[in-house]
Design goal:
Layout (H helix, E strand, L loop, with lengths): L1 E5 L2 H7 L2 E5 L4 H11 L1 H9 L10 E2 L2 E2 L16
Antiparallel strand pairs: 1-2, 3-4
Amino acid sequence: MEQTVRLLDGLGQRHGAVHTYGNLRSPADAIKLLCINSPAFQKELIEAHQDGVGYQVIQGGRAIKGYEDLALPFGSNDL
């Protein structure tokens, strides 16, 4: 099964707006793959808080609330 990960706004402009992966188990897997494929993306995630920037992970129109929820099954909706 293919899943689509969309990076919105400036994040998508800098690191590619649409990424398609197969057989992701969780949103955490998607983030790991994005970091592996783009070290600049990983660096931005790590350092963003220094500039007061935070990110939200949204799936099926609902924000994922905590780190533990990133390990939940990916589901059928885009991330």
